[in-house]
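Data availability (excerpt). The following record was deposited with the supplementary files.
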Amino acid sequence: MYENGFDSKELAELKGKALERLFQAKEIEVHELMCYQRFVKALSAKEKSQVYDKISKLALGQVERDSSKWEGYVSRPLNFVDSPDSPVYEVLREEVDKELDYLIENVHPDGCWYPNWGWGRDENEWKKVKPEVAGMVSVRNLVSLRSFGKFMK
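Predicted structure:
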């Protein structure tokens, strides 16, 4: 039994199902793949290696390489790579470097980045929340730039 009361046998069964689903997938929806990126951090070293291999292959099929489309809601390289130490970085190195330059070139004059998506409903609520989301997007971008040794002028 885990501290949170979750049964270890049930947890092992769920982990097995998640891994089976990942390894059988020929392609996978981007948000699900991003969840696997978080999931992999809880695995053993051997499992991590196998899962990162699969994530790398699937990420190659997800990433939009055309930076002119990055203004829209598309899968960008940094969705799958959080540092130069990421195993996925080796597969997406060129695309990640391109996105880092893109971030520097496209920072808003007020010094932050705004989300390239909206809710498509509840517009009054979105207007209230959007500055907070911009803060999260900006922090994420600044952390990415810093971890790759890129700095803005």
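Summary of structural features: Helices lie at 8-24, 30-39, 45-62, 89-105, 123-147.
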